[in-house]
Batch of 3 targets.
Target 1
Amino acid sequence: MRNNQLRLAVRYALAAGALATTATAPTAFAQEEEAADLERVQVTGSRIKRTDIEGALPVTVIDRETIELSGEASVADLLRNQPINSAGSFRPQSGSSAQSFGGISLRALGEGRTLVLIDGRRAPIAPNVGQGQDLNAIPLAAVERIEILSDGASAIYGSDAIGGVVNIITRKDFTGAQVTVGVGNPTREGGDTEDASAIFGAASANGQVMAGFNYSKRDIVFQRDREWSAGGASIFSNNFLGSDPFRWIGPDDGPNLAGPAVPGGCADPGYFVDGGFCFYDFTLQAADEAEVENQSIFSRARYDINMDWSVIGNFSVNRVKSFGRYAPVPSSPWLVGGFGNILLPIGSPNHPATAPADGGLNPDWADYQGVADELLLLRHRFAANGPRDTTVDAPTYTFELGFEGRVADWDLEGGIRRVDSQYFELGRNYIVSALAQPQITSGAYNIYDPTGNSQDVLQSFTATINRDARFVSREAYALASTDLFEMAAGPVGFAFGAEYRDEDYKDIYDDLQANGNITGSAGNSAFGSRDQWAAFFETLVPITDDLEVTIAGRHDDYSDFGSEFSPKLAFRWQPLDEVTVRGSWGQGFRAPTLDVLSQQPSFSADAVRDPQTCIAFGQAADCQTQITGFVIANPNIGPEQSDQYSFGVAFEPLDWLNGSVDYWVIEVEDRVAAIGAQTIINCLAGTTQNCPPGLSDLSALGTSPPYPDAGLGIARNPDGSIRFLQRGFASLGTIDVSGLDFNLQTNFDFGTYGRLTNELLANYLLNYEVDSGADITGDVGLPEWRAILRNVWTWGDFNVAYNINYIGGQDTALSSSPDFEDGLPSWTTHDIQVNYFTPWDGRVTVGVDNIGDRDPVVDPGEGRGYNNSLYDAYGRIVYFRYMQNF
């Protein structure tokens, strides 16, 4: 019997050991009795159990051996490096509202359009993100293998699998005990890793039980420790501006003069003078990448009631902890007035022209007498209050009770499941502008000597902020499958099932943040709930011995949105034993997520260009001005619709060579996107074409906004100026993306010299268009090529893994730069790992990632100096791991 790599992967996984990786090669069964040796199994992309696991849809499998040879300590890091994660994905970032989150974005379509499953059931939504699942909350020690369905499978798994499906299969049949400990040390400061795990399993004639724990941690990485991010210069430090007209103010006070900065207020640590301005180096304290720690316990038990029926239970507690540090608070936005800057009234002790005899604090007051009768503004940095520190505690509790059984010729399974994902965040050293402004006006806070202010004064306007988020899902599911009848080419397989899920969601910011009173942070609370019913079917029809067709469909019904049907068609044709041709077509949809549907109205001082408002204020028509804005949940938002096509060929011309090539297309309509204030103004003025539906004139509404039920739009005063504007998410435009997936595997047996296996995975983006615009493939952050070449040589008690990782070049984030005329270069790194299997059933692992200590591709157009979704900044990492089996 000729076995392809996926058949080996699943067959060996059922026996608790696997060495292969991806579904590529065709299969030829030489004898019926040999086919009977394979247990009927269910693989990602289908609900029908079968002995032939090479189906019509391309599935990439990352087995346990590949996971261990990767050297990674977390699921997020493992999947982030896969080529199908085309544009990279979110990495934990200090100063971000998603600080502890780690996701995957298949086909560069976003974490929210990638469906992550755990044992075929959807992983919990990250409550701090509201859409997308947090891979940092999944313990790597519990994973047996990961199956990536790159085709997209809305008809099988759910409405939001537009980009594809990642199915994380946990360990089930493990017996004995296994303990693993490891450390990793980058050659550069920060980013050190620790990991440890223990798994215990036992089996009897009537059942099996397994339990374990997992711990992993990666340290924080500060901007000051990387040359491409060190040395920031923020104008929010200590600089004066005139209010009428709006201009920089120096001692000689000339029109639009950039004079010397405040002398005394630019002498504290972190401040410096350059070109007459005062700057603050925010990189001295800010971190690029937050510290992330995972603590998990998990268990699984199975009890066989008899030969046909079994009861299964799963329970896990995963806790993600994170610490992030960001630079001290700048005075933006400043909600007390002054165009987002601190007010310095005439005669205030902090007004630079106030004489010491009148209580003035500026030692150079005499140089500023030219503005003594003018209200001034200040751009300031509250460095004396300390950096913004954010701590996160995010536990997830999962409980599942299910059954599997057989009645006559029907295979049945079902169960109930509850997932409770929580997120608690504390932020320290933030500023309440309404409390700080009086202290500055009175001179109690001295802007010329920030670190000289007393702690009582600093604490009088310093706040600790908090955030409480939670996503609870309660689920019931049932599935039945059978062979309906025999055709000449084989049995017609059929599966149908139903799911019910209700979800409760909240993401609550404290009142100060929600009301816009915190400088240095902002929050928009959201909370809501929904119920969802789904029914689905799948039929596998063998037309001939060489051709089979799969027909599937799914009906989803949302309590807060409506219903939709998603069909799927696929075929598999094997004209030769060595060649398999496959293809599929499907339609899907993605319902608006709860965070978008339920966000609470929040104030926003939006800077816009609106000729009517400028003229009404006596300014030039092209001026920039601030207006009163509100962010609301748009009642007119609709679902995203998608069409997906794929066509591919898998081949196995030689016993030691197999591979595949797949072409795919994904078209998304009515994409959900955030609509900015300027876009709404331009759309209603008729000066732009790409406009969402539902924008309206809100002028007839009252004078106590917001009015969420009215949707997005503008209310104007009788003089034409904007009274208020409502913005938010809307259904807008399209995404069209296509590409090619390549896979090539070789397997060489050198006898006494060992065995060598090689696997090349590569993804090539052919086209990526947003709103029917230009193809942006190859633009910044979207490389055309991503690839990985894995090589494993096994010889006696040793094996050596050598991986080559490749990310193609792109354009720079800078609109134009003579230093980057040819764009950004490609990025290639090399990893090596050596394993020794000891006589006492242990395993010693020593590895080096990024052997050449390559920097990430530096791009000065990026805020952090490089694209940290695509690249990491760890440099060379030497790691050690020891595993002991009992």
Target 2
Amino acid sequence: MLKNNLGYPRIGDRRELKKASELFWAGKLSLDELVTAGKNIRLQNWKTQKEAGIDLIPSNDFSFYDQVLDMALTVGAIPDRYESLKSKGEMELYFAMARGYQKDGLDITAMEMTKWFDTNYHYIVPEFVKNQSFELYSTKIVDEFNEAKLQGIETKPVIIGPATFLLLGKEKEAGFHRIDLLKKLLPVYWSILKQLADAGAKWVQIDEPILATDLSGIELNAIKEFYGKIALEAPELNILLANYFDCYGNNLETVLSLPVQALHLDLVRCPSQLQDILGSLNLSSDLKLSLGVVDGRNIWKNDFDKSLEFISRAKNQLGEERVMIASSCSLLHSPCDLELEQNESKLSAEIKDWLAFARQKLEEIALLAHLSQNPEDKVLQAKLQDNQTSHARRQASTLIHNQAVKQRVADVSKSDIQRGLDFKQRKVVQQETLNLPHFPTTTIGSFPQTSEVRKARLQNKKGELSNSDYHDFLERHTALAIRWQEEIGLDVLVHGEFERNDMVEYFGEQLDGFAFTQFGWVQSYGSRCVKPPIIYGDVSRPNPMTLEWTKYAQSLTEKHVKGMLTGPVTILQWSFVRNDQPRSATCNQIALAIRDEVIDLEAAGIKIIQVDEPAIREGLPLRRADWIDYLDWAIDAFKLATSGVEHSTQIHTHMCYSEFNDIIDSIARMDADVITIECSRSQMELLDAFAEFNYPNEIGPGVYDIHSPRVPSREEMVDLLTKAMKVIPEDQLWVNPDCGLKTRGWEETKQALIEMVGAAHDLREKVSVYQ
């Protein structure tokens, strides 16, 4: 049985790619040095997989920024605004598409970014026009296959399928559907496949996770057209069609008709589909099945007994030669190596025994194949026994269960998830209490985490900076941030979050039921990596988490300072979540912990409290039929966290990089007094959903893109707000960036916020003239 891996983390065991990329962007590393850093990571990844016994080792799963952006560059889907950059070289063009470009007299906006299906990974959204042309612009796919071949490693190139590539993009003008572009796109794909065949590739993995979603007949016919021609265009290649994150569902009949050599199944997210496929009359007699039994998206050790049941069922019907053992999806979503975790005060040996990171998941794939083929082998039987014992220890652990927490969740009533007055009534009370101007200005929460801030935090953790000195350091930075915000005229202030490492990790560190790692990094977007907490047990809040710093900041100013919290759904989504109870149960436990914090902040005199939920849309199931159940418990969890306050306390929430059209009624049901959203990259397009729905509450459409280093002009922000006023009543509008400012530098942050405050003043004057 072939051992198949769909993809491997590309950041490096110790985030080598992040460090190299950021030094390159800062002008401190040459392009050659950056390219070398990428080569070193790729080579190490290939060697790691080969040593683990993986047969189908992926190539082209590496990216300097994003795999969808790579594909856009490969097929020449380069928006016209970047035309002048083509002469500057492929990498300059590539990073400009991802991050924007503001130098050499040019000011070019970045491409949009949104979530990769229901993960916390962000991809760059391809842009298409009606007369879109395609060409083979980059040879990255073939180059990396040849690069591995020179090292004596035969790889399986991974390519984003044409249907997924097109359907994840966006039409930038009216009059066509992006799937109509397939006929123009296919010749470029044929060229890539032909070059791979000529280079000696035997297997090619074509990723079509769009098959986990609801597709129309037109879209399914387009998929048939592409895959129906592969046998003619590249007969030498074995095609492995990969879908993940859910079942094939209603697309299965079409998929089983395609002339591909292997089909990948995500049996972690959809275990029932194996029986559906094995029982199908349309299953061809030579189709291989890649069984995704090792979870690529979570960190729990594989249950060998359960996986071996799947393997046995497939093997008994198909034979060993038609069965592959695989990860459920790319290991991109897993940390690199559990063996790096040597600090037991950070991650206890007991909890570590329950886990497997990417490197360990490779070993699990290989072990499962060997166990299935050699069930009597004594060494393998000992490993199976170790696995069974580990699972038994976890199940019996006293760390996991807290009956008081379980009972509190069971006692939640309908009154706990409702504000006492509706929004229109609350708004009157809040206007009297808060006394804010028209177009109130604020930020999303965090200010730049400079190298000085990060250094002080690290020194404090290492014991090199005393708690007292570190506290004084944080007080100084918080005071400076408050004074500066007052000076430029922001209306609602934030304390800056200098004490926080990450918007989820910071809270998890103060909640019971969470564990943490030193090196458990995963990529979020570009060079941005996060270290998700591990929710291993029942969650509760032993002590206040944000009260001290919020109260201190409020004591420094007469203006309102927002309390800043991360919402329960986002903490859930951006953690590695326990798999021994429903996610909804864990989410309600977190919601009650956040509710306690909200009530404490209000009691301390904080009248505006922001509970961020950028992951609400991200957590939406991929098929519409599954939405209702998720939205019911997710929205109720937010309301449980925020509904314990008085009418005069204003609740804000923030969401970024999400399409809201399909769930706008659920967003309204959250009943936040103010919602702030990303709108700058989409040029306020996201507001259309709120306008069509007649969204009743207040909205802060982000007026500048914090994921790009470019500083927008005052006029640009006024223009965006003017667009917003065409669809949203002016008395509902707030003025703010589209996300937190943690990753930016102070110079650009100050320039941009000064321009933003100026834009709000311009609008106030403009509106007052007309009134």
Target 3
Amino acid sequence: MTTNDIAAAHRYTAELAGEIEARWQQAWTERGSFQAPNPVGPLAGDLSGFGGHGRPAKLFIQDMFPYPSGAGLHVGHPLGFIASDVYARFHRMDGVNVLHTMGFDAFGLPAEQYAVQTGTHPRTTTEANVERYLGQIRRLGLAHDERRRVSTTDVEFYRWTQWIFLQIYGAWYDEEAGKARPIGDLIAEFDSGTRTPADGSVWADLDAASRTAVLDTYRLVYQSDSMVNWCPGLGTVLANEEVTADGRSDRGNFPVFRKRLRQWMMRITAYADRLVDDLELLDWPDKVKAMQENWIGRSRGARVSFAVAGGDAAVEVFTTRPDTLFGATYMVLAPEHTLVDEIVAHEWASGVDARWTGGAATPAAAVAAYRAGIAAKSDLERQENKDKTGVFTGAYAVNPVNGRQIPVFIADYVLLGYGTGAIMAVPAHDVRDHEFATAFGLPIVEVIGSEQGVADAAFTGDGPVVNSDFLDGKPVDEAKTAIIEWLEAHDAGTGVVQYKLRDWLFARQRYWGEPFPIVYDEAGQAHPIPEALLPVELPEVADFAPVSFDPDDADSVPSPPLAKASDWVHVELDLGDGLKSYTRDTNVMPQWAGSCWYQLRYIDPTNDETFCAPENEQYWMGRVPQVHGDNDPGGLDLYVGGVEHAVLHLLYSRFWHKVLYDLGHVSSVEPYRKLFNQGMIQAYAFTDARGVYVPAEEVVEREGGHFYQDQPVTREYGKMGKSLKNSVAPDDICRDYGADTLRVYEMSMGPLDQSRPWATKDVVGAQRFLQRVWRLVVDEETGTVRVTDDEPTEATRKALHRTIAGVREDYVALRDNTAVAKLIELTNHLTKGYPDGAPRAVVEPLLLMLAPVAPHIAEELWSVLGHSDTLARGPFPVADESLLVEDSVEIPIQVKGKVRSRVTVPADADEATVTAAALADDKIVPLLDGEPRKIIYVPGKMLNIVP
């Protein structure tokens, strides 16, 4: 046996790392090392030993709900998972009760589409994907409380999703109280006469059906004929985020059409102000707050009524610039606007501009043709299209401020979902209006004074009002106030606050989703399922494919897969008035439903009496003003995930949580107190001569270029993923280097909130660091312990405690890259300074500090050093403050603006001492010719000499 063979037997290799990691993962599971006790219920435990000494008693840490894709993980996915795990492990070691687990957002279209293609039930596919995903994240050594895992597809989970739906359905928003209240309170107020229906009806005179109709106009969940994204090729409606910019389905690339269908809606708009205002309470990135504010789009302006000439109709518009009313020279309605069919003229007036007609014989024909032509365009495509199109309806509206008749068009750049779906067009001062007016030969009237003129481009700056009668000469803000007063005085409009936010379309024509806890009677009236009959389980069906249509058949009507389960659809129930026949709702909830509240189920996952016991929610998510300040909204303590969920998921979750708060089911105002967005891991991708991506792992570099199957390819950087064929599986890195090496590499690549490039060749650097740590404890040749009981030098003690203070601070601030750098520096200090064995008094704290980022090797070496207990619960070392004070400092000396030397002086040295040392320095003396003209000293930082 050679010397190298002997050394290899005790060296920290990938094979040894794999064995250590598997063993410690099993040990953690058997010991319940990461189980967090609750105050009450099945998971209750002793809470007395947590917190103190300035530390919080508990921390609730959560990763954004992952979808268990069949493709599995690539190394970009665990970035946030590892970071949150480091954060959780550190605080757990520091005496905090930490709740950290992970579940799965397992409903959704991908599993259903795969099931349709293969004939495999989506549950079978989903459960297999979950197991694969679990295997991958468990191999990373993530310290999760396994008892708390949930999947949205678990019947016991979606039972409570349905229950929450019923709470929202059974509530209305009381604007006077500024909160949601049970619908029963509204009925009681109608019965007593303290409140009357908003539509002016007399409650006492209404029959049961009419009363139900009135209540439905108040409910936070209601049914409405809404414009939706209908995809005949998939047989379902799609959310906006599921439609590409060119108006096609993200999955399958089928055409998507705007269509009016009766759908479930959630009245999220009732919470618009609170959703905006409460952002101030949250410790979130400013970018995310801005994205939510823009999505909600709260703006102040005026609602103005334009009477349609020759009829009784009027077009309502909302404008943030009522001061420009005198410059409105035409109007535009969204093509889907309900008023279009009412006002469209029967024939063209003589002399109408040919550009306005679209070549059609009549206005009605022009409107029909235009609607058909833009039906497949997405909202994004319509807004971004630079080529303005539209047709004249043949109708004219009257501008209320000057009595002029202006033509009414339809055009795709106006959306039904924003404002009133109609605009007054002021082409002199709006870019899109100017483009449209130019294309159609419409008047452009300047009403905000500018020196540039408005013939060639819109002027969007500020200036005095011009060409506007009684507003002339006023600044914009003053003109806005004056015109609103005029509109209100003449019953032509009113000052209002408007929002871009629309109510939430809450239904999908799919199989693989949560069934609605709703049934319909013979008259088609909706009835909620009693709580005692929950859950409404998803039925087993032989054919779970939606009824698909010709992809181009815009006139097709959805037929949900659940409609095929006739035995399930038709049911006999006693809803309190005897056994009757009902029909179940055959839509399912959107995939967002489960992720709106899953943090609450993590708290109490085995509770079958309620979705989350109040005592447990209060403990983990309640307000803690003594720690977080008087404005603390409560919520979990750290939420880590990608910025791609900045709006919809976070907005929907906040909405649900606020309803639950209003109804008294939770004590926290917000679900997520602190949010952190990790960056992306990018990797090289390669395209061949056709521009087609080729597998990155099969590309070789030679002769100054890159080749795939001996053909040259072009290299680019891109987000790691399946589409660019540049994924790297974490399983492969764990196999070749070890999970701890992967963890250290990903955490050391750079600041967590920034994107960073992946380079497999650099992973070995992290492995070598861990090998140096290993050699501090284990002799590679003999396997014996190398640490000594010698006292460390004063310099080493100071280096240790500087590292402890710095690493502790870095872990708290999620600066794991700089924490790793400090650990590497300390390891190098010990390696070089103690070739015959480093002191135990320094090595053991090093292992404790390493444990959050590289837990397996830290546990193993901790055990090798004779400790029988896991270090999963610490203790994390605490710095000796007296050793953080420097005895001396090194001061850079500048001459003529450049650093020429450095001098070491006592830390408390005054300016005269530093100056004397600098002027006597061997490198400085030759640079001076006599006494310097000027000396500038920055205490403790720098001394600058001007010769």
